[in-house]
Design goal:
Layout lengths: L1 E2 L13 E2 L2 H9 L3 E3 L2 E3 L1 H5 L1 H5 L8 H34 L3 H5 L6
Antiparallel strand pairs: 1-2, 3-4
Helix pairs in contact: 1-4
């Protein structure tokens, strides 16, 4: 799976990178930064002080990495929930209960 972030100022999207710390580090090395939950591309990072003042600095690489990984966990959690719901729907259509599948393979 790949991951992509969008600049909160100009809408520019990062290139797609793999999930995990390596992908987050790749985006940070490309010049991205963050302020709170918002991500900013290299071009908008360069104009940050002009737009927001020196008394409001960007939060840096560690915060940016943490926010990216947090968003990835959220996306993966939603994907797991979606797949579980799809699996439950398939089981229901086949006439099996969740209990049948929880005990499948344990009948010996």
């Amino acid at each position: 799976m790949t991951y992509q972030v969008m600049c909160s100022n100009c809408g520019h999207r990062s290139r797609k990178v793999p999930y995990g710390e390596d992908g987050a580090d790749e985006i940070i090395q490309a010049g991205w930064n963050s302020f709170g939950d918002a991500f900013y591309c290299k071009k908008c990072v360069a104009t940050w002080e002009k737009r927001n003042g020196k008394d409001r600095p960007l939060w840096g690489a560690n915060h940016t990495r943490t926010r990216m990984l947090g968003r990835q966990v959220g996306e993966l959690s939603r994907e797991v929930e979606r797949l579980n719901n799809r699996l439950k729907k398939c089981r229901d259509e086949m006439g099996h209960t969740t209990y049948d599948y929880m005990n499948w393979g344990n009948e010996w």
